[in-house]
Amino acid sequence: MVLTHFPALVLFSFLVSVVFGLLSKDTPRERLWYGAKVFAAFIGIALAVGWLMYPLP
Amino acid sequence: MANKAIPETGAARGQPKRGALVRLCVAAWVVPGLGHLMLGRKWRALILFSAILAMFLMGLVMQGQFFSTSSESYLETLGYFGELCVGLAMPAARFFGYGGGSPLFASADYGTACLVSAGMLNVLCVLDAYDIAMGRKP
């Protein structure tokens, strides 16, 4: 299976976010919310860093 | 008289014996989520098992590399132990014929990262199971 950058990033982030959310918080609602925040942070920061590196050779 | 402002520690509640803790941690390492299952957290065990196994399988499908200790590079040796942290999945993959990936495959680098990350996530699971057994977490 060949995945390009973005699908690999999304899949990896999703799986890590699930584990982080489950282990870090105690109630289902808190876990879902924290997992969603971690997922959004993964994707957002990756996109931001990608754009920051864009002008570089 | 107990001070209710100070929460009870695991020591006050009666810690599990060392042998039981070791068995729990080994079980949690060998199969992701098994430690949580032994502690009665069935749904948590199932989700952790699914997520970590999915990460590991993603690494295999993307032809990630299995590191070895025979390399002179410290980073590769560290990578080997990182991958070994996932438990039985790594030797099982070798047993069923996974040759360690192809570095020429387009997604191989991502696959290697996924394999090591699966191991690292399992380390977090082992530590979480330990904390639950010690009474530090619900």
Explained architecture:
The complex is a heterodimer of chains A (57) and B (138). Chain A is built from 2 helices and no strands. Chain A is an all-alpha fold. Chain A has one domain. Chain A starts with a helix and ends with a helix. Chain B is mainly α and 138 residues long. In chain B, 62% of the residues lie in helices and 0% in strands. The relative contact order of chain B is 0.20.
Concise structural overview:
The complex is a heterodimer of chains A (57) and B (138). Chain A has helices spanning 5-24, 28-53. Chain A is mainly alpha-helical and 57 residues long.
Relevant terms:
heterodimer, A: 57 residues, mainly alpha
Write the topology of this structure.
The complex is a heterodimer of chains A (57) and B (138).
Chain A: H1 5-24, H2 28-53
Helix pairs in contact in A: 1-2
Chain B: H1 10-13, H2 18-30, H3 34-38, H4 42-61, H5 74-84, H6 89-95, H7 108-133
Poorly predicted runs of chain B: 1-12
What's the total count of β strands of chain B? 0
> What is the alpha-carbon Rg of chain A in Å?
14 Å
Element order, helices and strands of chain A? HH
- Helical content of chain A stands at over 70%
Our estimate of the beta-strand percent of chain A is: under 5%
Count of helical regions of chain B? 7
